[in-house]
Backbone:
């Protein structure tokens, strides 16, 4: 069992949208470019997200999408289920007809309860993670990356003529970090 690109792309696009909606509606073309997701694929996903009232759309110039609810009130499970992503580890699709005995009667396979329990735990976990949690994680990651870049770009300036780099005073110049 695995999460397909449909669910991954929907969650990624929603994080992108939530991070940028403070400036107004976000276009799918911009999300497509930033996240390297096909525009036509995003259009399909956002149609489903809109029908499930997770996003609102604004038409016309300056239009695009915004969240229909606060990011803290949208869970990863909401997003995954909105785009019809199956989250089922059972081989029977939860129908309890995993196996047929010699008598031809359908029944549960020996591991049915294991996989059904995994399904419940996955849904519980995805329901416990909000879109805001993911936005916050992404902002921290971007800040860390910007800090690492600034440190890597730090310039040592030799202030004393003829002094070696090892014993010269240094000045660190850091790039501005934007989130």
Residues:
């Amino acid at each position: 069992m695995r999460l397909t690109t449909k669910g991954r792309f929907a969650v990624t696009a929603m994080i992108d949208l939530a991070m940028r909606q403070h400036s107004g509606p976000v276009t799918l073309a911009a999300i497509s470019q930033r996240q390297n997701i096909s525009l036509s694929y995003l259009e399909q996903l956002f149609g489903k997200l809109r029908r499930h009232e997770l996003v609102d759309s604004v038409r016309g110039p300056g239009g695009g999408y915004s969240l229909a609810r606060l990011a803290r009130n949208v869970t990863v499970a909401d997003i995954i289920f909105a785009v019809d992503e199956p989250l089922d580890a059972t081989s029977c699709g939860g129908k309890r007809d995993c196996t047929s005995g010699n008598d031809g009667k359908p029944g549960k396979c020996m591991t049915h309860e294991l996989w059904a329990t995994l399904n419940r735990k996955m849904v519980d976990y995805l329901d416990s993670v909000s879109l805001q949690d993911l936005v916050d994680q992404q902002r921290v990651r971007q800040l860390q990356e910007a800090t690492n870049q600034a440190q890597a770009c730090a310039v040592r300036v030799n202030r004393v003529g003829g002094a070696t780099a090892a014993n010269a005073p240094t000045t660190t110049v850091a790039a501005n970090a934007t989130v």
Remarks:
- Strands lie at 55-58, 64-67, 99-100, 106-107.
